[in-house]
Structures are given as structure tokens and as C-alpha cells.
Design goal:
3 domains; four-stranded antiparallel sheet; Butyryl-CoA Dehydrogenase, subunit A, domain 2; 11 helices; globular; Butyryl-Coa Dehydrogenase, subunit A, domain 1; about 15% strand; alpha+beta; 10 strands; Butyryl-CoA Dehydrogenase, subunit A, domain 3
Length: about 375
């Protein structure tokens, strides 16, 4: 059962300044481009130079490796601000965070020195390749193989729905080295951009996050054995540890999209008039807004709890699963209610409500479906 929450690290004036900087950047530079990019006007990769210049791509890393050394709660707040303006950009950023977290958690110092400072400075973008066409929720059934060959390792397989896959400078990829060993037979490797035998398919025609570079990767590569991340057989553990962090960041994305939907809806109900009166005067609408705001506040508390446990060095797998489950489900309801309150205008692409509804939908699927989060929570409760 969940114990008492640790004392949260106090937010400093520098943390507040950083969040305000991210907020201003998101609203002035990301939000104005979000609709056009979603409609097919390009990729959110266009934002990489400014994200790098502001230090956003290293926010999840310690100062030793070129990052900002932020408390996890502040990191979640920054992700939420980005998602509030452009969820596709937030998806690109959090996929990068997930990848560098894997290297931070599993790599030795030489590995970290090779990849993390460049990642923090925005000189290199990461991608995390775990999902396969037939093994979305159960990576133990992956078919990608790693076989010793000559003086290296031959990786052969297909990874699917890989965020940043087509533009990444390095990819953490998971493969079975010993199929008979179950979870202990999975290794993680790092592929560099341009590795012979690495091919990215055209971007996936997704329902939401349409400006985020998501694609299939085909791999038939010979790597030096030194590109294995962590000890032999540690890949599955690395994936789980990185996903604990990533799930909190996905929950933070949900907070951002939900906040954008709620903010737009509050403004709409004040401006929209029915029978000469603002929509906001209708009690039924007030109750809907109250429920939306309450769910958003509850989701934020779950994200903060998981973040505080991470900073305290305590186990937070269950809390990460709870945060992702509740925040993504709540954000889906909030986006749907927001669209409903806007009526036919919400269904039009002239307003961002339909984009919020499309973008938020995948958050209940990737980095572990809502059903998988329930399995994790129940398993830990019953231990």
C-alpha cells in the first residue's frame, strides 16, 4: 500500500524562473505553430534549436552530465507547459528524456560521457526503441535478436511506433540475446545515426501528435559489443526503470493538454452567449467545469507525489503507474467535456479542441496502456 508522501523539495526562485521561461517560450513560439504543424505544415523538429538554446533537452539530467539538475516536480511542470502549447513537441522531448534516462541509469561513466553532454546541449537527440509490431504491451515477446558475430553483435528486427526514430542521433534499442532466459535474456544497445543497416520508414499517419516524427525502424546492424548498454541480461530492467520516469512525464503531458482544454473552455463560457446570457451562468456548465478542474487538480497531485518519491530515491513504480493511469484518463475526459461545451465549434478545426482530443488519446496507450498500469498497481498491492 502507498505510504506517506516524503517532504517535497522546496521550489527555488531559480526553479520558478525556469518554469516561467518555459511557459513564455511555449506560449509565444510553440503554440502559434501547433495547428499548422498538425495540419501537415512540417515537423516539430523545427523547434529543436530553440529547445536546445533554452537548455530544455537537458532538464532531466544531473549537472555533472550537462543538465540542469532539476527536481522531478519542476521537470514535470516544464513538460506540462510544453504540452499545454504543443503536445507533439512535448512527445518529442519526453521521448528524448526517456532515452537519455536509460543511458544515465544503465551506462558506465564512459558511456555517459559519450552521449549525455551532447544530449543535454541539444547536439544529439535520442529515441527509445522497445515496441514491436506484434509486442506492444509485452516486450518479453519481442522478436528482435542480438547474436554474437565476429567481434561484435548482429542486431536484426523491426521496431514500431518509435518517437524521434527518423531524426534521432542515437537510439537505445532492446533485443533478445538469449531467448530461453526470459527477462534476463534481453539486452539494451545504443545505435548511432548512420549505422549501416538502420533504416527508418516514412512517418506514421497517426490520429494525433501528427507533427511528431513517429516511425518504424528496420534494423540489420553489426555493432561492436561495447555498444551494449549495461551488463549482459540487464536490458529489461533498464527499460522498466526508464519507463517509471517516462510514465510520470507522460502524465505531465496529460496535465498540460488538460490545462489547455480547461483554460480555453473557461474563456469560451464567459464569451459565448445563449439567450443573451453568458454560457458560464448555466449551472450545468458550472458543474462540468468544476468536475474538470477537480480532476485536473487530483491528477497534478499524483504527478507531484511520484516526482517527490523519485527525488527521495524511494521506489515509485506504483505511484508512476497511478499518475499515468489517472492523469491520462482524466485528461481524456476533460478534453472531451471541453469539446462538448464548445458544441459544433469544438468539432471544427478552426479551434484547438479537436486537436487536444486527438493528441491526448494516445497517452492512454504508449509507455504502457491504462490496462497495463492497472496490472502494475494491482501486482504491487498484492505482493
Amino acid at each position: 500500500m502507498p505510504g506517506p508522501a516524503p517532504t517535497a523539495q522546496d521550489r527555488t526562485a531559480e526553479d520558478d524562473l525556469l518554469l516561467e521561461t518555459v511557459r513564455r517560450f511555449a506560449r509565444s513560439e510553440l503554440a502559434p505553430r501547433a495547428a499548422a504543424l498538425d495540419e501537415g505544415g512540417g515537423s516539430v523538429a523545427e523547434h529543436l534549436p530553440r529547445l536546445a538554446a533554452l537548455g530544455i533537452l537537458g532538464m532531466n539530467l544531473p549537472e555533472r552530465w550537462g543538465g540542469a539538475g532539476l527536481p522531478a516536480r519542476v521537470l514535470a511542470g516544464a513538460v506540462a507547459e510544453i504540452a499545454c502549447a504543443c503536445a507533439a513537441t512535448a512527445s518529442m522531448v519526453t521521448a528524448h528524456f526517456l532515452t537519455v534516462d536509460a543511458i544515465l541509469l544503465a551506462g558506465d561513466d564512459a558511456f555517459r560521457e559519450r552521449y549525455l553532454p551532447a544530449a543535454a546541449a541539444g547536439r544529439a537527440l535520442g529515441a527509445f526503441a522497445l515496441t514491436e509490431p506484434q509486442t506492444g504491451s509485452n516486450p518479453l515477446e519481442m522478436s528482435t535478436r542480438a547474436v554474437a558475430e565476429y567481434d561484435g553483435v548482429r542486431l536484426r528486427g523491426v521496431k514500431h511506433f518509435i518517437s524521434n526514430g527518423s531524426i534521432a542521433d542515437f537510439i537505445v534499442i532492446f533485443a533478445k540475446s538469449d531467448p530461453a532466459a526470459g527477462a534476463r535474456g534481453i539486452d539494451a544497445f545504443v545505435l548511432d545515426k548512420g549505422t549501416p543497416g538502420l533504416r527508418a520508414a516514412p512517418p506514421e499517419p497517426t490520429m494525433g501528435l501528427r507533427a511528431s516524427p513517429i516511425c518504424e525502424l528496420q534494423v540489420d546492424c553489426l555493432l561492436p559489443a561495447t555498444q551494449r548498454l549495461g551488463p549482459p541480461g540487464s536490458g529489461f530492467k533498464t527499460a522498466l526503470r526508464a519507463l517509471d520516469r517516462g510514465r510520470v512525464e507522460v502524465a505531465a503531458m496529460a496535465l498540460g493538454i488538460a490545462a489547455a482544454a480547461l483554460e480555453a473552455t473557461v474563456a469560451w463560457t464567459k464569451e459565448r452567449r445563449i439567450d443573451g446570457h453568458p454560457l458560464a451562468e448555466k449551472q450545468g456548465i458550472q458543474w462540468m467545469l468544476a468536475d474538470m478542474a477537480t480532476e485536473l487538480a487530483a491528477a497534478r497531485l499524483l504527478v507531484e507525489r511520484a516526482s517527490d518519491l523519485r527525488d527521495a530515491g524511494a521506489p515509485f513504480t506504483q505511484e508512476a503507474a497511478m499518475a499515468k493511469l489517472f492523469a491520462t484518463e482524466a485528461a481524456g475526459r476533460i478534453a472531451d467535456q471541453a469539446l462538448q461545451i464548445h458544441g459544433g465549434y469544438g468539432y471544427s478545426r478552426k479551434l484547438p479542441l479537436e486537436r487536444y482530443a486527438r493528441d491526448v488519446r494516445v497517452l492512454r496507450i504508449y509507455e504502457g496502456t491504462s490496462e497495463i498500469q492497472r496490472n502494475i498497481i494491482a501486482r504491487l498491492l498484492l505482493q
